[in-house]
Design brief:
Helix content is 52%, strand content 6%. By secondary structure, the protein is mostly helical. A two-stranded antiparallel ribbon has the order 1-2.
Length: 142
């Protein structure tokens, strides 16, 4: 029997890599929206009595129910993305990270909080695309 030895440096106090964390947030947030869309689609397919399977961004059903699944998939995409997702994220982050701000203008920590609050409150404007058009789009889903 072989003995495997792991060397762990208990003295090293590793700090999280904040650059990696900041860079990882946007793609992970988008992935969470994609997975939410898939979950909503699967729940509505189940409610409609469809046999439905999904992995990542692939959706499967029986050939006879593809049109129904297609309709459900589009509807759930529109329903999800009609919500004020970025505004809600902004509100959550402001509440979580900026609700206990010291109001002393000369305090360095206050200046950091103020900068963070301004950044988190800056939500991009929505465009003028009519999201309902996704329901009729040729290439949304095939």
């Amino acid at each position: 029997m072989q003995h495997i030895s792991l060397q762990i440096n208990h003295d090293a106090k590793q700090r999280p890599d904040t650059v990696k964390q900041k860079n990882a947030f946007p793609p992970n947030f988008i992935h969470s929206l994609d997975s939410t869309h898939m979950m909503l689609t699967s729940l509505h397919c189940y409610s409609a009595g469809l046999t439905f399977v999904s992995v990542h961004d692939c959706f499967w059903t029986h050939a006879l129910t593809v049109d129904t699944m297609n309709k459900i998939c589009r509807e759930q995409f529109v329903n999800l993305h009609s919500q004020p997702i970025l505004q809600e994220l902004s509100n959550f982050l402001l509440l979580k990270y900026c609700s206990t701000v010291q109001t002393q203008a000369k305090n360095k920590k206050y200046q950091e909080y103020k900068r963070l609050m301004l950044l988190l409150a800056k939500v991009p404007q929505t465009g003028d695309f009519d999201l309902q058009r996704v329901k009729e789009s040729t290439y949304f889903f095939s």
